[in-house]
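This protein record is not my work; I was only asked to verify it. The record follows directly below this note.
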Amino acid sequence: MASSSSAPQVITCKEALVMEEVEISPPQPLEIRIKTIFPRIFGHEASGVVESVGQGVTEFKEGDHVLTVFLGECMSCKMCKSGKSTICQVLGFERKGLMHSDQKTRFMFKGKPVYHYCAVSSFSEYTVVHSGCAVKISPHVPLEKVCLLSCGVAAGIGAAWNVADVSKGSTVVIFGLGTVGLSVAQGAKLRGASRIIGVDNNPRKCENGTIISSPSYSEFIFQHVTWSLDFTMLVSTTAKAFGITEVVDPNSCQKPIAQVIKGITDGGADFCFECVGDSDMLTTALESCCDGWGVTVALGVPRLKPKMSAHYSLFLKGRTLKGSIFGGWKPKSDLPSLVEKYMNKEIQIDDYITHNLPFDDINKAFNLMTEGKCLRCVIHIPR
């Protein structure tokens, strides 16, 4: 537990992947320390309660309910003020596993630093984040649900709404039907798309009306070691519930998938979304768009081969390729309205959650993922 003195002190708590006691420093200027209530795999999406605040923090106080966000918003830099970008110059991407303010870590294990992940590190009972990487929400909002808005669900819906601006009656093709892909489907459905085609190579995709996602990827930085994990995840609700109207399995096609898509969409889709993280698939998505106005949006983060190639004629014929980070949302400015939409039942989140597990069982969550038996596991830490 935190010290009862006025100044925050170093505390110890459990942290995964290996369940160990680590020391967590008090928040420094403009930082807050959060008691994590619902950390989400892979440790960059969480909801919790502010445990203490650092010097200069005025937006938050102890007891506030918050979402952590890997893409911060300082609200004062050139990018934040421009209204043209969601990538903050100050709190954009944390790459070194260190805090933005002093390039140090707040986690220690046996005297050695443990590095942060995506500036939010939610695989821990407590975490320290820059105040620009947290979003205050109402205490009446269920933390165990809206934690999914810290990345995956918000990223998918926003890609359809903010980045692609999916239009009513349009044809949409989604490559990769994990949580992000299904969130794109939900966003496209709410925008009135008439046809939403899912592309995924898992043969069990339509068994018993369910879908199984393709492999996804993430990294963890823990004591100088980068860990990678490939996994498949079971979607416990029907494709139709999220808006998918049909599913195409590339392995069952006799022609390249781009040709198949163009054949069944009269020359190509209006919008394509790459949600796998494969540069070759991104090229395929671009080729699957129609001439003249087809838009392809890249959401996936490539595990390998980060460079893509495409024939220049695709662009000469009017196709557009866009990148999407966090669905084009400004996290602190826009997430509260997305939370409100959830509370008003305008968007769905609950159906993405297939399991709720206590923190001590976090390795069971990993097993569920690797065995293809879950879509999203929410890990609960008692208050």
